[in-house]
Design brief:
globular, Rossmann fold, alpha/beta
């Protein structure tokens, strides 16, 4: 089913970021915005998203910066240091994209969840901190803090799931700092650790699906 979904979506190029949109016949009204990791494209998170929410409309966007045979969301200096102007420029552009794609396809942003992986997760956290008010929920897989300067953003009422990989030696050590940062800005943060490296898989799908289904999110230590 997941391969069928990817193969039967077209790549739209009418907005600032290329994107694929999939709306199932029995769509629930929920929507998942999908932001991929570095060096790949918008199709990579669609199978995972279908595991998580089979009845959700999917908006799978493509990062605007070319990297090897794929794309990323903003420029990096090292694997853990990032070009700040690029982050802010791409974040502003993506905020405009979200508003436009929601209007064009009649998507309810209050029923939307932003699912980001690695570089895509970092774009989502930057979007929350730099352009608040667009999203009520975000699930961040293998993220880390990327902003050198963070504005005094109020994230009260925003629900965030962070999933780190136990053997992700590059990024997992930074996850607690992101949990602290977002919590201090008022977000409800649920932090988890899965027994994997930087890659995502079925355990992530299970956690995100259960998190979305829960009515209240208990703020918990990484476990």
């Amino acid at each position: 089913m997941s391969e069928y979904v990817v193969e039967n979506t077209i790549l739209h190029r009418d907005l600032a970021f290329p994107y694929r949109l999939f709306r199932p016949a029995d769509a629930s009204g929920e929507c998942l915005f999908l932001l991929h990791g570095s060096g790949v494209d918008e199709t990579t998170l669609m199978p995972l998203a279908r595991q998580i929410a089979p009845k959700a409309t999917l908006v799978a966007a493509r990062g605007g910066i070319a990297q090897e045979d794929g794309f990323r969301w903003f420029a990096r200096i090292t694997p853990t240091r990032f070009e700040q102007e690029s982050i802010r420029t791409e974040t502003d552009a993506f905020a405009g994209f979200v508003a436009e794609v929601a209007q064009r396809h009649e998507l309810d942003l209050s029923r939307s969840t932003f699912l980001g992986y690695s570089n895509g997760a970092n774009l989502v956290s930057s979007l929350m901190l730099l352009r608040p008010g667009l999203m009520p929920r975000a699930a961040l897989l293998r993220p880390m803090p990327v902003l050198d300067e963070v504005p005094p953003t109020d994230l009260n009422g925003i629900r965030i799931l962070i999933i780190a990989g136990a053997t992700d030696l590059t990024y997992a050590p930074f996850a607690p700092a992101l949990v602290t940062l977002l919590s201090r800005h008022g977000a409800e943060v649920d932090a988890r650790i899965v027994s994997s490296g930087h890659e995502f898989g079925d355990p992530d799908a299970v956690i995100v699906r259960q998190w979305l289904a829960s009515k209240t999110i208990a703020v918990s230590p990484a476990s």
